[in-house]
Design a protein that fits this description.
Elements lengths: L10 H12 L3 H13 L6 E6 L3 H12 L3 E6 L7 H9 L5 E2 L6 H13 L4 E4 L3 H9 L1 H5 L3 E4 L2 H12 L7 E3 L4 H24 L7 E5 L3 H12 L3 E5 L3 H9 L3 E2 L2 H7 L2 E4 L9 H6 L4 E5 L9 H7 E8 L2 E6 L4 E5 L5 H4 L6 H21 L7 E3 L2 H14 L9 H7 L7
Parallel strand pairs: 1-2, 1-4, 2-3, 4-5, 5-6, 6-15, 7-8, 7-10, 8-9, 10-11, 11-14
Antiparallel strand pairs: 12-13, 13-14
The structure holds adenine (ADE).
The site of adenine has 9 residues, from helix 3.
Amino acid sequence: MESHIASPDLASEGKKRIEWTLKEMPVVARIAERFGQTKPLQGLRIGACLHVTAETAVLMIALKEGGAEIRLCASNPLSTQDEVAASLVQDYGIPVFAIRGEDRDTYYAHIQEVLQFRPHITMDDGADLVSSAHRLRGEILQGIIGGTEETTTGVIRLRSLARSKELAYPVIAVNDADTKHMFDNRYGTGQSTIEAILRVTHFLLAGKRIVVVGYGWCGRGIAMRARGMGARVAVVEVDPVRALEALMDGYDVMSMSEAALWGEVFITATGNVSVIRGEHFIAMKDGVVLANAGHFNVEIDIQELEDLSVNKRAVKPLVEEYTLKNGKRIYLLGEGRLVNLACAEGHPSAVMDMSFANQALSVEYLKNNASKMEKDVFKVPPEIDREVAALKLTLLGVTLEKMTPRQEVYLSSWQEGT
Ligand code: ADE
């Protein structure tokens, strides 16, 4: 089988990791069971560009159970778990093109391998697969019937493609499902970002001055979890409503210039470019730590950091020390790539369970409905969102309250008032 992975010898370690993860993902397991019985994805080729983790492996196995043929590549050069990639190839017969630490050329060569497979469905995390397919055009693009997108940054890119009328097929924005962003972005990013920073720095968070840049779902989660560990948290935001929300949630809110003078650890989660840049590096205290929790490594202006530095060295795995011309030292985690996957294992499996349940059900929906859909970006159908929430609750052993007939009538009428 065609594949490009670090080493097939890692498969047995990867298999144990996938099996451990599987028991934390009961919703996807339940869907896989149904897929196995009814084979709703029979005949479908799926090209997936996702972080190659044990959670992704569980999703890939479910799709294969459903009858799909799959090829998988990485959505970030530094997030691949090589042992998982090996097990997918060796134990589950799923071709993978991903090696942790691959360079940019290899990263894009792997995306090409997935596109050469002529997928009917693209499954993306960040929209690199979709944008590569659109650059390639031709037969490959024409053969694609639909796609799914996992993350905020990818959805923003796809909406821009749709606005310019260039999007060639319908895409479901999995990120926008309530059962995705309210949990994965908030609790998943919140916990795993803090975990990643602690893994590589071994810091005590109590009393630490942490600056969270961006107060979207991810920023909210990071700020909440940092405060939960006793850190002093400040938020930097450009949107007045979100800034006000952060203030009333009890955080200090300040501009990036003010935060640069105050903070000890800086975490970006904006989806935007150069939110921490030269003017801020120069103002920072000696010894500060910078981490990025956004999808791309553009939020911290690494080029400007390099230009302002007289020396750079690795002080521990995934921690680089930059010495500035003014003598101060700045520490960058995981090359400024998304820290939770570069320096730890990404979001916990239990939260990926909901995100990937949405992915699996959205693919099934596209198989049945893509031909009737416009070339646009769509929300996950609400019935899928509700099904994922209901299944998760059931599998957690939680019972939902039911409305009485009288309550149903009351809520659907206008006559009853004071
Ligand atoms: N994105 C964030 N965390 C992830 C994980 N554990 N697996 C796949 N994609 C992710």
